[in-house]
Amino acid sequence: MMASRGTSAVLSRAARMRQKLQSALEASALEIEDVSYQHAGHAAVKDNANETHFNVKVVSPKFEGQNVVKRHRMVYDLLSDELNLGLHAISIVAKTPKESGL
Fold it and tell me: Mind naming one GO cellular-component term on file for this protein (predicted)?
């Protein structure tokens, strides 16, 4: 019982992002790739280059009728806590199930 409480308290940023996006967007496909290593030494990434830059690909029916800017805003809004806690950049591909062929 204690082990499960401990592991859930220390989720990686990618795992927290996955939970937030999957839950809110009801994603039929969701890929989150940590590419922070590509930005080590970048001026905005001073000390810790871990979990600062991600590529996100998400397929959601919630994107129906939304333009690209609105889709990206939805993702940014869902991840606002992470952005305030050290997430520096997200590359987003946001499609509807129809657009993705799912």
Answer: chloroplast
